[in-house]
Amino acid sequence: MSLIFDSLTVILVAFLLLLSHGRVDSEPVQDKQALLAFFNLVPHENRLQWNASASVCTWFGIECDANQSFVYSLRLPGVGLIGSIPPNTLGRLSQLRVLSLRSNRLSGEIPSDFSNFTLLRSLYLQNNVFTGDFPSSLTRLTRLSRLDLSSNNFTGSIPFSVNNLSHLTGLFLQNNRFAGSLPSLNPSNLTNFNVSNNNLNGSIPQVLAKFPASSFSGNLQLCGSPLPSCNPFFPSPAPSPSEITPGLPSSHKKSRKLSTIAIVLIAVGSALVALLLLFFLILCLRRKQRSRPAKTPKPTAAARAVAVEAGTSSSKDDITGGSAEAEKNKLVFFEGGIYSFDLEDLLRASAEVLGKGSVGTSYKAVLEEGTTVVVKRLKDVVVTKREFESQMEALGKIKHDNVVPLRAYYYSKDEKLLVSDFMPAGSLSALLHGSRGSGRTPLDWDNRMRIAMSTARGLAHLHVAGKVIHGNIKSSNILLRPDQDACVSDFGLNPLFGTSTPPSRVAGYRAPEVVETRKVTFKSDVYSFGVLLLELLTGKAPNQASLGEEGIDLPRWVQSVVREEWTAEVFDVELMRYHNIEEEMVQLLQIAMACVSTVPDQRPAMQEVVRMIEDMNRGETDDGLRQSSDDPSKGSDGHTPPPESRTPPSTVTP
Ligand SMILES: *[C@@H]1O[C@H](CO)[C@@H](O)[C@H](O)[C@H]1NC(C)=O
Ligand SMILES: *[C@@H]1O[C@H](CO)[C@@H](O)[C@H](O)[C@H]1NC(C)=O
Ligand SMILES: *[C@@H]1O[C@H](CO)[C@@H](O)[C@H](O)[C@H]1NC(C)=O
Ligand SMILES: *[C@@H]1O[C@H](CO)[C@@H](O)[C@H](O)[C@H]1NC(C)=O
Ligand SMILES: *[C@@H]1O[C@H](CO)[C@@H](O)[C@H](O)[C@H]1NC(C)=O
Ligand SMILES: *[C@@H]1O[C@H](CO)[C@@H](O)[C@H](O)[C@H]1NC(C)=O
Ligand SMILES: *[C@@H]1O[C@H](CO)[C@@H](O)[C@H](O)[C@H]1NC(C)=O
Ligand SMILES: *[C@@H]1O[C@H](CO)[C@@H](O)[C@H](O)[C@H]1NC(C)=O
C-alpha cells in the first residue's frame, strides 16, 4: 500500500518538478514560431544565427519581458535582411513594443498584419527599399511614439489619419517619394518631423510651420512658412509675430528663443514705464501752467483692423493715422462680402497662374479652408494710395448679376492686390477658342445670344449705375456663371495706370480713337463690345492674325466680307448646324456693326444696345423647335414686343 503511495508520491513530485522546471524555462512559444517562420523565409547574413533549441529570449536582437512570457522588442538593424516581410510572421508578435528593421534591404509593402502591433511604441524601418502607399496598418498603432519610414521608396500621399497616432513625438518620412499635399498633422507632442526630399506640393499647414525649413526642403512644390510663401503675389512672406501659432509645446530651442524675447520685452517695458513716468511728470508740470482739454484719441489701426475682420466695410478716413505696422496687413473687404479670411490666409493659399495681362497677373488662390478666389496682382500702379482707395470704393459698390464682384483689395507700397470671386466655368475666350476641332462641344447659338445679352446688361449697369468705364472688354474678361449667364470682370482699372500704359491693352478690341488719345470712354467700351459680338458671330479671335490679311482687324474684315454680299461667309462654321437662326445672326451682326462705328458719336449707348438685343425677334422665326419657352435671353420684363414695334437695329440711329 505504502509502496503504491510512495511511488505515486514520487511520480507526483516528478510531475510537479517537471511542471515547475518547464515553467522556469518557459519561453513565448508562439512568438518563437512566428520569428522562426520569418527567419526561414527571409534571407539574411550568416552571422545572424538563431538557435532553435535555445530560448527565443536569448536570441540575438530579441528581448523578452521580465517573465519571459512574450517578445518585447525586436531589433535587427543592418543584418542583411533581403526581400519582403512575409505576412503572418512578424505580425503575430502582438506584444511587441519596439521593432527596428532599419538599414536592411527589405522591399515590397508593409504587411497589413502590422496592425496587430497595438502596443508598439517605436517603429524604425528607415534605410530599406519598401514601396507602396503610406501603410494604412500603421495608422492604427495608436501607442506609437516614434515612426521612421525615411529613406525608402514609399509613394502616394501622407494620409490625414496619421493624426490617429496621438502619442507621436517623432515622424520621419524624408527621402521617399510621397506626393500630394501635406495634411494638417497635429499630434500634440510631435517634436521631430521631417518630410524633406519627397514630391510633396501645396502649402504647409500652419500647425507644422513651427518646424525648421530643413524639415520640408527638397520637395516638389511645397510652400508657405517656414519655406517661401506660396503666393507669387507676395514675394516675401510678412507674418506678424502674433500670427505664429500660439500654445504649441515648445522645444528647447523655442523656449530659449522665447525667453530671449521675454528679456527684450522686459527691458523695453521698463524703459517704457520710465518714459511714461517722465511724460506724466512733464504733463503735470504743463497742466499747472495752463489747463487744456485732452485730445480725443484717433481710432487706432487696431480698431480698424478689427472692423475689417468683422467684415464691415470701414471708413477710410483714419488710414493716414495708421502706423507702418498696420500698413503691412490691410486686406480691405467690401460690405456684404461672403468671405472671412485674412491676409495671412491669403499668404498661405496655394496659387496658380490664371493669366498674365498687361496690368498684372491673375492667380487662382485656394485657401486652406477650401475657399477659392481670384487674386489679381497689379503692376505699374501710378496713383496715390488715396486715389487707389477711392477707385476701389467705387468698384466695390457695383453689384449686379452680370458683373463679377470685387471682394477686397490690398494696397501697400510694393503690392496692390484685388480679390474677386472665382468663376470655375471659365471665360468666353476659352469656350469659343479653346481646343477647336477634336471632341469639342461647340458653343451653341442660344448660349451665344445669352452671353451677348448678359454681357450687355453687365456693361450697361457699369455705365449707368456705376458710372464706371470698363476699359478692357475682351472675351477673356467675360466669365461664365454656372447658369451660363455671363459676367464682366476686370473693369474700371484704367484710372490706376498712367497714360504710359496703353488704356485698352488688347489690340483688336481697341476703338480707333483710343489708339490715338489713349483715353477710354463709354463709347470706346461700346466699340469693344461690338468687337465682342463679332467674335461671338464669327468665332474668330480679334487679337489673332487668323483673318487672312496681316493687320486687318475683325470689324474691317467683317465689313469687307459683308460688302461683297457674302454675309453667310462671316458666321462661325460651328453655327451652321443650327437651323432657322440666320435672321437672328444677321440682326445681331447689325447691332455689332452699329457698335463698331468709327465715329464714337454714331455708336449707341450701352443701355440702347441692351434694348436692341432684347428687341430682337427671337423665337418667332421658326416652328419653335429650337427655342424653349423659358428662353432667358429675352427681356427681363418677360414680354415679347409685338412685331410692329420691333425695331430693326439698322434703323436705330443713335
Ligand atoms: C543550441 O542551444 C542548445 C541548448 O542551449 C545548445 O546545446 C547547442 O549547442 C546550441 N547550438 C549552437 C549551434 O549554438
Ligand atoms: C510576472 O508574473 C507575476 C506572477 O506570475 C506577475 O505578478 C507579474 O505581474 C508578472 N510581471 C510582468 C511584468 O508581467
Ligand atoms: C495577427 O495577424 C494575423 C494575420 O497575420 C492573425 O491571424 C492573428 O490573429 C493576429 N493576431 C492577433 C493577436 O491579433
Ligand atoms: C484610427 O484609429 C482607430 C482606433 O483607435 C481605428 O479604428 C481607425 O480605423 C483608425 N483610422 C485609420 C484611418 O486607420
Ligand atoms: C524606387 O522605385 C522606382 C520605381 O518604382 C525604381 O525605379 C527605383 O529604382 C526604386 N528605388 C530604389 C532605391 O529601389
Ligand atoms: C504629451 O506629453 C506629456 C508630457 O510628457 C504627457 O503627459 C502627455 O500624456 C502626452 N500627450 C500625449 C497625447 O501623448
Ligand atoms: C499636387 O500634386 C498632385 C499630384 O501629385 C496634383 O493632383 C495636385 O493638383 C497638386 N496640387 C497643387 C496645389 O499643385
Ligand atoms: C530632414 O532630413 C534631411 C534629409 O535627411 C536633412 O538634411 C535635414 O537636416 C533634416 N531636417 C531636420 C529638421 O531633421
From TrEMBL:
Name the record gives this protein: Protein kinase domain-containing protein
Cross-referenced Pfam families: LRR_1, LRR_8, LRRNT_2, PK_Tyr_Ser-Thr
Primary location recorded for the protein, binned into one broad class: membrane
Transmembrane segments: 261-285
Composition bias, Low complexity: 297-308
Subcellular location: Membrane
Biased composition (Basic and acidic residues): 615-637
Gene Ontology cellular component list: membrane
Keywords: ATP-binding, Leucine-rich repeat, Membrane, Nucleotide-binding, Phosphoprotein, Repeat, Signal, Transmembrane, Transmembrane helix
MF (Gene Ontology): ATP binding; protein kinase activity
The keyword ATP-binding is annotated on this UniProt entry: yes
Signal sequence, renumbered to the chain: 1-26
Protein kinase domain ranges (all copies): 348-616
Region (Disordered): 293-321, 615-654
